[in-house]
Design brief:
Elements (H helix, E strand, L loop, with lengths): L2 H12 L13 H5 L8 H17 L1 H4 L14 H9 L2 H4 L8 H7 L11 H19 L13 H15 L2 H6 L2 H6 L9 H4 L12 H10 L1 H7 E4 L7 E4 L1 H8 L18 H19 L10
Antiparallel strand pairs: 1-2
Bound molecules: heme C (2 copies).
One heme C (HEC) binds next to helix 6, helix 12 and helix 15.
Length: about 290
């Protein structure tokens, strides 16, 4: 557990919010969401240029009081930044290829009838670039030191990973069963995520889990994250960070059921096992054809 998570948990506990459904006031610890960066210029860019777009086009279904769709649009500027950056299923690794709040709406046909104008695209891309820079200590918006931009590296790694995941490892390790039956203080994960609600799927059908994670990057990115902290060596990592944020009920997940986030937890072990096997194929060059195009 990182110092940051410990600090955030302590603040939540001090605010009397652990174990209750009280809304938690935004804190500085919350802005970091446990994964570093974000909070300075990027925060301001979101609040000034992007939050108004989210309010106009997305709040109708995604406001923090929404019951069916991921609640990432804060009710006021005071909690708006914390509301969006804490959702992996919305911001991913903050690149134009890894942030669903951009890719989903930019996809052919848009998302739920919504598209972004050219001006909105420019504003969102500028904000995302500022986040990538702040969170990875990078050289600022634009290409990193390597031949690829952060967005290109993200798209490549997601595509490669989709070919490296193997059905036999999902069935062999019962990955789906171990995640769907993982407990929380509000029931097992499958109780709410069996059909993939909120960008997270936990289903005991291992074939369905393999098909979903290997062909849909939104679900893949709940379990695996593209790490850009070293742009000379960007890589896929197990997404323990998102489970820590959610399971420890850090902002904006303060109403989520609490669950065990220790690396010794059976589902976390299953994730590490699947990761190690998959990375093994990648290292050995024995991956299959990517199912997700770049
Ligand atoms: C008419 C309602 C509606 C509107 C408006 C809407 N969404 Fe959604 N959105 C949904 C529903 C329902 C889902 C879950 C099913 C899906 O993935 O399409 C969803 C899923 C998502 C997801 C995937 C994350 C997840 O947890 O499932 C993202 C990201 C997202 N929306 C972003 C946006 C953005 C950005 C806007 C505004 C530009 C927007 N949505 C507008 C209804 C809406
Ligand atoms: C009682 C219903 C319920 C149960 C049980 C539940 N969840 Fe959730 N989950 C939600 C809701 C609602 C959201 C969206 C709001 C939020 O994140 O707080 C969510 C969101 C998530 C997200 C997406 C967070 C993001 O960053 O986009 C993850 C990951 C997640 N849950 C993991 C789990 C795991 C793991 C379990 C089992 C240990 C679990 N959930 C059990 C209701 C539930």
């Amino acid at each position: 557990m990182s110092i940051r998570i410990l600090v955030a948990s302590a603040l939540l506990a001090a605010a009397g919010c652990v174990g209750t459904l009280d809304p938690t006031p935004a804190t500085d610890a919350g802005t970091t969401g446990g994964d570093g960066g974000g909070g300075g210029a990027a925060r301001q860019a979101y609040l000034t240029n992007v939050y108004p777009i989210m309010q106009a086009k997305c709040a109708g279904c995604h406001s923090t009081t929404a019951a069916n769709a991921t609640p990432f649009v804060g009710a006021s500027a005071a909690n708006a930044y914390e509301a969006i950056v804490g959702f992996t299923s919305v911001v991913g690794n903050f690149t134009e290829t890894g942030a669903a709040m951009y890719t989903k709406v930019m996809a052919a046909g848009g998302h739920q009838g919504k598209t972004y104008s050219a001006d909105e695209q420019t504003k969102i891309k500028a904000w995302l670039a500022a986040e990538v820079s702040e969170r990875n200590g990078g050289p600022g918006p634009g290409p990193g030191p390597g031949p690829e931009t952060p967005a290109q590296a993200t798209a490549r790694l997601i595509s490669e990973w989709s070919g490296c995941l193997k059905l036999e490892d999902f069935t062999g390790n019962n990955f789906g069963g171990r995640w769907s039956n993982k407990g929380s203080n509000g029931g097992n994960c499958e109780q709410c995520h069996t059909s993939g609600a909120y960008g997270m799927i936990a289903n005991d059908d291992n074939t369905l889990m393999y098909n979903t994670l290997s062909s849909n990057k939104y679900y893949m990115l709940a379990f695996f994250a593209v790490d850009l902290t070293d742009m000379a060596n960007p890589k896929m990592v197990p997404n323990f960070g998102t489970f820590e944020r959610v399971g420890l009920r850090m902002i904006p997940h303060q109403d989520h059921p609490a669950f065990n986030t220790a690396r010794t937890d059976d589902a976390m072990v299953a994730l590490q096992q699947l990761y190690d096997l998959t990375m093994g194929y990648k290292t050995a060059g024995t991956c299959g054809t990517p199912k997700i195009p770049q």
